[in-house]
Amino acid sequence: MDESSVRPDSELIAKSSRGDSSAFGVLVLRYRKMVVGVAYRTCGDGVLAEDIAQETFIRAWTKLSTYRPEGSFRGWLCRIAANLTIDALRRQKPTVELESRTFEASGDGPEAAVLREERAAAVRKAIMKLATHSRMALVLCEYEGLSYQEIADALGIPLGTVKSRLNDARLRLKAELAGYLEA
Phi/psi zone of residue 42: left (φ > 0), alpha (ψ -120 to 50 degrees), beta? Predict the structure, then answer.
């Protein structure tokens, strides 16, 4: 394992703030998958998600002086990615189809794989029907594992609003996926 990959964020951020691009590169490698995931699960377009991730890291590099260590770096990156994703969605058509995923190998057999992929497609479709702000809160909570407070910080909204958006998203998903929940 590379020694730089185990360095704490705080050390890498401090070096990056002094212009060390290789330290920032380690942060990019560490958080790239998360940033792409936030963008993709919110916009449903893999190419757009990659573009948003790239712009997120460019913005983070140029605005690193505005980062405050009291908050988590992960949450700060999520906030940048969330804002850029919302901006991109405003410029696009209201609905975006999610790309079809390839089947992952499993020992369950072809029928189980098809059913699993059907359910996953239904979930992706239902998530894309949510309002952008509810979808973003849901993605940060359920897919990225951020706490309610981290989501509030990342989206710049009160904690109660996070809870309200998550409750709304979950209720709408439950209604949309009722047929799959009974199976």
Answer: alpha
